[in-house]
Amino acid sequence: MKFEFAELPYAYDALEPYIDKLTVEIHYSKHHKAYFEKFTAALAGSEFEGKSIEDIFKNISKAPAALRNNGGGYFNHNLYWQILSPKGGGNPTGKLADAINKDFGSFEAFKTKFNEAAANRFGSGWAWLSVKADKSLCICSTANQDNPLMDIADCPGTPVMTLDVWEHAYYLKYQNRRPDYINAFWNLVNWEKVSDNYSKALA
Ligand code: MN
After folding, report:
1. Closest by alpha carbon to 46, among 1, 107, 106?
2. Residue 175 is part of a domain; what is its CATH number?
3. Of 16, 65, 75, 167, which is most buried with the most CB atoms under 10 A?
């Protein structure tokens, strides 16, 4: 399996005013790119070379820290950029909306729970919406660059949506106000993409 550094699906300034141009530029072209490069370097010649990212994460407890941190950093940011869009926001529809209502009670209750997961992650990490093995939805957060596909995760599942709550994701614009960044995020969620991820996770 050969991994690639995917193009950002929009311009650096496309997420303004919710996420500023400089933050997106540095986050994608410096932070994300560095994870990608360190991931492929750590993979080269290792016993994990040639495996899918899912297989790598399933055995991450046996992998060196460089693979865990940088493989997570590579994968997590790919999902993050994909589920954001300048045309995002609003409400989910269809089967995803039905599942959110069923598993969380309402869209508002879902948002509250996701916001809490993002706000309460101490230090650096990620908030997740995932599909569990029983096909229900769950919200959780992970530290550093861990994710729910990893065998060390205490909230295992297939991620369909994520929010980066590392300070590098918001500090230039929001400084210490992580909750303002979390609230702004909802204006950017690409529900079509999240729905698509949800359908694939069910398949
Ligand atoms: Mn990040």
Report:
1. 1
2. 3.55.40.20
3. 75
